[in-house]
């Protein structure tokens, strides 16, 4: 979780994520949108990839990046459930609903 929040602390990295919300882009296409050196951009992309927020795929001579939405969503949801007291009750209620769907008491799910 800490790596994700560190990655999100940077404005250029948040902008990269915003660009990737509409689909994958090559490293060159991302670079065209920023006024920074290629090594600096590579560092930002590496931080995002290490945090699990983007995935890369090399195709020929190009590297394409795409957003890993599930990672960000799961991390933020987990964080909010930890710090938000209201969410604890909702989480228990959701577990009961899921248990009822499976025909088991919620305590047996863990």
UniProtKB/TrEMBL annotation:
Keyword Transmembrane helix appears in the UniProt entry: no
Xref: PROSITE patterns: HTH_ARSR_2
The record's annotation in InterPro entries points to: ArsR-like_HTH, HTH_ArsR_DNA-bd_dom, HTH_MetalResp_TranReg, WH-like_DNA-bd_sf, WH_DNA-bd_sf
Report the protein name in the record.
Metalloregulator ArsR/SmtB family transcription factor
What high-level taxonomic lineage is stated for the organism? Bacteria, Pseudomonadati, Pseudomonadota, Betaproteobacteria, Burkholderiales
Q: Does the keyword DNA-binding apply?
A: yes
The signal peptide here is: none
**Which keywords label this protein?**
DNA-binding, Transcription, Transcription regulation
Q: Which Pfam families match?
A: HTH_5 (PF01022)
The species this protein belongs to is: Piscinibacterium candidicorallinum
The residue ranges of the HTH arsR-type domain are 1-87
